Amino acid sequence: MAATTDFPIPLHEYKVVPLDPKQPTLTDEQREQLEKNIQLCRDAIIFFTAIGGAKGLGGHSGGPYDTVPETLIMHGFMENGRQGGTPGIVPVFFDEAGHRVATQYLMSVLEGEMDIEKLFHYREYLSHLPGHPERGFTPGVKFSSGRLGHMWPFVNGVALANPDKVVFMLGSDGSQMEGNDAEAARLAVAQQLNVKVVVDDNDVTIAGHPSNYLPGYDVGKTLAGHGLKVDTGDGEDLDSLYRRMCAAVTESGPVALMNKRKMCVGIEGLEGSAHGHDVIGTKVAIDYLKSRGRAEAVEYLESVEKGPGGPAHEGCDASSVGKNRDLFGRILNEILDAIPEEQRIASVKVFDCDLEGSCGLNHVRKEHPEVFVRGGIMERGNFSAAAGFGYEVGKQGVFATFSAFLEMVVSEVTMARLNQSNVLAHFSHAGCDDMADNTCHFGLNNMFGDNGLPDEDRDNTRLYFPADQHQFRKCLKSIYNDLGLRFLFSTRSGVPDLLNENGGKLFGDDYEFVSGKDDIVREGTAGYIVTFGETTYRALDAVIKLKASGIDVGLICKATLNVYDEEMMQKLAASPAVLVAESFNVKTGLGSRFGTELLKRGFTGRYNNIGTHREGSGGLWQQMGYQGLDSEGIQKAIRELVK
């Protein structure tokens, strides 16, 4: 790593330009400084986000890069307000696209609220620069954005609380797909809120171009239909953009500015590409910075080394790691291959929510486009569409998104259950492992999917979280034809193959997955750890180390989360101690209900449950240890029970 700590993009040259929205024409001096500021900030964003990418931490470069011009004009309006100009502007860069967090970090530095040195540590563990903004966690960050579609309704409330001021919100054509924004638009119009929505309309989301996969969708027309004044123009034409923003600010009531531009405009190899949504590749960033004459930035990037990997674990094969979120699509293809084409088209529909590559559905799109539906960023509607398709016996709706978004479809889950629909739902990125996007992207409250009534066992909803790729494969193939709602969870991270005491695969060829049946990973006399998913291999390492130290603890893998294996429950009820270890929310996860179920069966031993209980720390695999869910943390928790 280069020894220098001097930031190689001269942000000290940035000079905020006070801009009076009542003067809609830029002076030559204002335009010259704004153009210089825009290029300076774009270079900085490419540089420090590329550092995160080079370290293997991921991130997002294109969105914050694109929206620099409108952000800096907003900054100028805010500065004018600080100097006593009118109208007053709420001095927050509200942004509904949380992945554009680099904007917040850069502006925090430019406003003197964060040390510039912090930018070298974008998305690192304990750096307090996670992948989405979190209020109170990062210096200068004034709001928590959540995922997508959460901010506009929130900003409406800010506007109601500040009726004499203008409130800006940076928008995007992707975020505007969410149903929350439609509701927010209607309220803003009805209440004539002074909200100015500045939409980066670049026709790009994660999975591609909305104009291709959602033909007919037009953000400007949609917002006009809700009653907003809509002003469409070129986001890269600085004079035009400034005039349009001045007009929006000086007009009373809600206004939407549609700024048309290509994603990553001016970056060779990324311009107009969906790949620009993610973190910029190191080579592309270096080439860009070279073209800008940023030799010191190039030198620094060339010296960046990938971040440290996680610790080794006993009881698993680290040379064989399965990424279950990707395997979902591959295994689903095997199932679809075996169904005759005519029957397949009539009986299966697979709904993607613009996360196909993250959930494995890209494989289905490539191999079986005849059953694939590109649903866009609309989790609630897509889940219900999958349920409607699976309304009849013999038809199967398949749905996939991130686990954090399960909270957004709980009402739709209830309606699907009441309609006795058949839905196979894959929720990837469960838990907190490998999640530099941090707290808002943690998939913690997944047990909310189990919200039916125990009415004479009529509810056949099932939640599954297999522990490695082999159990995942057996599980998916076993449950595919089951009736009702099936929630299958996977992690963002890969998980190693689990081994039995003889060194063979724990879930090998002779293993049969049975819904509702728990699996004994290791026997023990001092007590048992009950776990599932990516916590299993960490718990197995803990068990092996505990046994070596003389504490004979066993391990149970409970891959079916919401059904109690009575034979196993009797075994555990007779045990002197039980610890549930999981990456779900410690308040709402398996452990929050498991102790009660043990008591019902006569348990008199000692019990505890550990899970995610702290807001995130940034970083990747380190998140689990931060929550006390690594091997060391699990050992500590069980020792306290059996001492």
Automatic annotation (TrEMBL):
Residues 322-497 form the Transketolase-like pyrimidine-binding domain. One of its GO terms (molecular function) is transketolase activity. InterPro entries: PDH/Transketolase (IPR051157), THDP-binding (IPR029061), Transketo_C/PFOR_II (IPR009014), Transketolase-like_Pyr-bd (IPR005475), Transketolase_C (IPR033248), Transketolase_N (IPR005474). Keywords: Transferase. Its cofactor is Mg(2+); thiamine diphosphate; Mn(2+). Its EC number is 2.2.1.1. The keyword Acyltransferase does not apply. The keyword Cell membrane does not apply. It is an enzyme of class 2 (transferase). It holds the Pfam family Transketolase_N. One of its GO terms (cellular component) is cytoplasm. Belongs to the transketolase family. This is Transketolase. It comes from Thalassoglobus neptunius.
